[in-house]
Design a protein that fits this description.
- By secondary structure, the protein is mostly beta strands.
- Helix content is 6%, strand content 47%.
- The chain has one helix spanning 2-14, and strands spanning 25-28, 43-47, 53-54, 62-63, 67-73, 77-85, 94-101, 111-120, 123-131, 135-140, 151-159, 162-169, 174-181, 196-204, 219-230.
- The chain starts with a helix and ends with a strand.
């Protein structure tokens, strides 16, 4: 395990990163807010309720969460990483990374991976959703001791035709696998390989706050240490 972690760190330090000026950033579902690059700065998204990224049925495609993203050639994507935190307290409060594989002919069939923190069963957890045709969801515990709002560093990395989702722990020295997504870059998949992918950060709040006068309260989801690597 130690050798694997050291090899990963060395590989990461040797990876080429695209120039920050080469990425053009866009907002989806965040009207009136100017898009800025998250590279080299901290960003907080004010997330309204009744928002999500989730497709439990073909007739229920929900991509309403504020999403700050850039577009990169799929063949050049290597990895994306960010640290996310927030005052998680209401069922399904969430935020983290999103990688989408756009379907230009039918946006409601766009495939996506989202990964980050999600509040469930009274506690924040590490959540991953992979959506090929329909969404499936997994949760893993946050194992590192923390004070204050829960935070996590999430990494999505390409490995051949797969995308692997990790949580980075031990002050950046180790990583723990959360999910393997085998369809992500698979050219043999019936839907074909997306030529371009969209990569970025998001926050979502599917559940309204309880209590009189609080139904429309937002959650402030904060991000730092964003890194996007291409080859």
């Amino acid at each position: 395990m130690l050798f694997t972690n050291i090899a990963w760190l060395l590989a990461g330090s040797a990876s080429a990163s695209a120039s920050t000026s080469s990425f053009k950033w866009h907002w989806l579902n965040n009207p009136g807010v100017e898009p800025v690059s998250p590279i080299g700065r901290s960003i907080t998204i004010q997330v309204p309720p009744d928002t999500d990224i989730w497709r439990p049925a073909l007739s229920k495609h929900n991509f309403t969460a504020p999403y700050l993203y850039t577009t990169v050639p799929a063949a050049h994507f290597q990895s994306v990483q960010v640290t996310v935190t927030g005052p998680w307290k209401t069922l399904y409060d969430q935020g983290g990374l999103v990688v989408t594989f756009p379907n230009r002919h039918n946006p409601n069939a766009t495939r996506f991976i989202k990964a980050g923190i999600e509040f469930n069963d009274g506690t924040p957890a590490l959540g991953v959703v992979a959506t090929d045709i329909l969404s499936d969801w997994s949760l893993s515990p946050i194992t590192e001791k923390q004070t204050g709002n829960a935070k996590a560093t999430i990494l999505v990395e390409r490995d051949g035709t797969d995308a692997w989702v990790y949580v980075v722990e031990g002050q950046g020295k180790t990583r723990r696998a959360l999910r393997q997504v085998t369809w992500a870059f698979n050219e043999d998949d019936g839907q074909g390989l997306a030529k371009e992918i969209e990569v970025g950060i998001y926050g979502a709040k599917p559940t309204e706050e309880s209590g009189e006068g609080h139904a429309r309260d937002k959650i402030a989801v904060s991000f730092s240490g964003f890194s996007l690597k291409t080859v």
